[in-house]
Amino acid sequence: xxxxxxxxACAQRSLRDTTQEYPLLPALTEGCPATSDSAMQFPLEIAFxxxxxxRQIFEQDPLPGLDRWAPLLPPLAPGLSMAEGGTPxxxxxxxxxxxxxxxxxxxxxxxxNPTWSHKDRLNLCTMSAAIAxxxxxxVVSSSGNHGAAAAAYAxxxxxxxxxxxxxxxxxxxxxxxxxxxxxxxGVPAAARWPLLREIVARLGYHPxxxxxxxxxxxxxxxxxxxxxxxxxxxxxxxxxxxxVLIPTGYGELLFGVWKGFRELxxxxxxxxxPRMIACEPAARAPLSRALAEGRFAVEVAPEHTDAxxxxxxxxxxxxxxxxxxxxxxxxxxxxAALVEAQGAMARTGLWTELSGAAGLAGLxxxxxxxxxxxxxxxxxxxxxxxxxxxxxNHTVPMTAPEWPxxxxxxxSRYGISA
Amino acid sequence: xxxxxxxxACAQRSLRDTTQEYPLLPALTEGCPATSDSAMQFPLEIAFxxxxxxRQIFEQDPLPGLDRWAPLLPPLAPGLSMAEGGTPxxxxxxxxxxxxxxxxxxxxxxxxNPTWSHKDRLNLCTMSAAIAxxxxxxVVSSSGNHGAAAAAYAxxxxxxxxxxxxxxxxxxxxxxxxxxxxxxxGVPAAARWPLLREIVARLGYHPxxxxxxxxxxxxxxxxxxxxxxxxxxxxxxxxxxxxVLIPTGYGELLFGVWKGFRELxxxxxxxxxPRMIACEPAARAPLSRALAEGRFAVEVAPEHTDAxxxxxxxxxxxxxxxxxxxxxxxxxxxxAALVEAQGAMARTGLWTELSGAAGLAGLxxxxxxxxxxxxxxxxxxxxxxxxxxxxxNHTVPMTAPEWPxxxxxxxSRYGISA
Lengths: 418, 418
Prior knowledge:
The structure is a homodimer. The first copy, chain A, is built from twelve helices and 13 strands.
């Protein structure tokens, strides 16, 4: 059941001071000009005319295609959607046991999107803004999911796409970007942000990556993630989870999902909202530190983590707001715990990128400190294992096919009684 | 709406002589003993008690989870399903134009499955047979989608899985297999089949790959593909396509989808059935030759093709039957045409493995000879681009980030006016 195909978005609004309003276009991709200064930058978000919402929209089946949520999204470019979302919600009893949780545990499998990550939901919205703005192309800084999704939607829109990758981008992701015809340029990490700004200035390309010292990002992007909240509500049988665990880098996913739940409450669809649990790599974890220090945002040292999808040096205001408003928390997850969680998930048939295991790892960490939940708990799995560094470099030892040699490999390497 | 969770499968039956019946277990994984001889081997298929079907099953939404089709599938192991299927059907006007077809053209995107290929539908069924048979493990011969899906479902079932890969298996796929904990053993191609038989004989592992000179495969496997036909019927608004184009190796997918449509007709759900179009790599194409020569199966020389997912040396009886019964045809697609179709699809946002572009390439080939269609045409896209040889080996040239150098790369390599 489709219930209206016209966006009810009406303005951009400062997330820090909601009296500061701007028209929907142009998308303000450098944060809110009124509330930001050199010390701190605040993002904009999109305001909607909620009085016009037909609540029947929350009585459909959770099928793919974000255009089914058009009234609650920024204006979408016609024909751009390619059946994002509608991703399965997978109950997993064995992982519930592994994580020590006694209420139902479910994985929201975002690997089932058009480019196999959650970022498709964001890029549908941001590419629509790029098209509406008449930009001659888009530019992103990414060595992973975001770059691939941007490349795919740009290809679909017929716009050139420049992806600034780091010089150690995962090999499988490099193939991925090139397949969509993106202009992939590998540069040292520190050079990416100045170069992004230079491309915006020189070529007039629409930026779909952050441009401020503290993260503000694209105002349209997190709106795409609201649909995860709507789908969870439908998939759980018209209820919301007790908690949602989110792999967290800049916090756009965290905030977007939270915004969706807050809307469900504002619209009177649900009485309660879930706790939002931000799961950051322990080596960085700027959001955890900002919250602990009572600050809007902090910068941290670029300590190493293999969780490339969520390895960031600064947080943004969105994450702080999502955790505080939802009575949530931010967790610091060591890489070793991510590896364990990734392995546990693979043993139940789901191969996630390392970052995508952060939710499960975080849940186990919470229950270990005695935390309990008053209802189902959901972890969002952001992307497939194909996106990790090292994937595509591995080689399996090749052996002669005579039985004694094969039996020896099966025994010694894989523990199979042969 | 779920309409019954008990399988109505009642017997294994020879595909060549339907009076030859066997109990459902053990699964006969070496073809029909009564109708096969050294010159030709015929597969078994599964008979169902169609009188017991509640036709309301065809009134649900096409959501993921093959257990929703349980009455029409072999007995499924409880808890094994992980939301296979329910994959999007994507209308694509620009590819319709590219392929020269005047009726609607749609892609059935099987990359949205749990291991990102159609093979999950098959492995849900075959792993259920392995579990029911009490086998201590499973063994498959595959360097791609099938091996990965088998490894995932085996992991979920808690069974060891041996995957015999070729020594040139795609690097990204090798990482994939190892992630699920499969025992991946790379051996020369010619040694794989004898070794598979040896593992079955020595270890009692359940084989989920063919064991006969001409392909017979697992009797349960193609039944999983029937669900694609059911979903297409629902997704097209209670109608069937005029034609369905299928990337074709051994023809299990081709036959399984066909069987689903034939059932819809037998059950009185639809009056007509689509033409089944087998799309084979031109370098091999045993089904095309078997059909041309009026034979059940032929062996061809192992000429090179990059379409590794459908590069086979023999066909099987299932493919012959599907093409003949459906008034279909088999097409020989040159690799160059596959590359062109793969590129055309990527330009609309979908990165498929080379084999997965065979349907689109085949459609273009058909229209070029004046073929027209009396309704919507569907191409099944089998798997993502991550599965191809070479993916994960690619490196992007790294450049210094000074503008003149960057502008030169954008201009010379990507054609961007910078």
